[in-house]
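Ticket closed. Logging final result for Mannitol-specific phosphotransferase enzyme IIA component.
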Amino acid sequence: MYIPIERIMVNQQFANAEMALKKIGTYLVQQQIVAEPYVDSLLRRQQQYGVYIGNFVALPHAEEQAQQWIIDEGVFLFQVPDGVDFGTTAEAKIATILFVVVLKEKQLSFLQEIAFFCSDIQNVRLLSDAVTPQQIQQILLDEE
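Final structure:
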């Protein structure tokens, strides 16, 4: 799976899931990937359904109706070495890798591809331990 170097962010830190989504959303708006309302949709999606998929991975994405606020499509990876909790007070769900999917079409198939890749904990460990965006990009390309 290919993600451009400039869309891979390493060594990120977030206090909690809400702050992570707000900061990521702000970044996407600043990069002119999405319009401002998309960020609210990211937050609602997490609150309603959760975006944690297991193996220390979260797949933040907006609700289906948020497609109208997508300006430029793409997939982003945010590496969070210290983790960020996408769970509840009753059950922590720590994610160290966040794949942010901003697609109008083929979103479901890309989410499935990411979920399959991350079902192997060794792949997640490699992503978590990588130091540079180039290393992460190569790990993703090696799995194709």
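The longest strand covers residues 74-85. No further action required.
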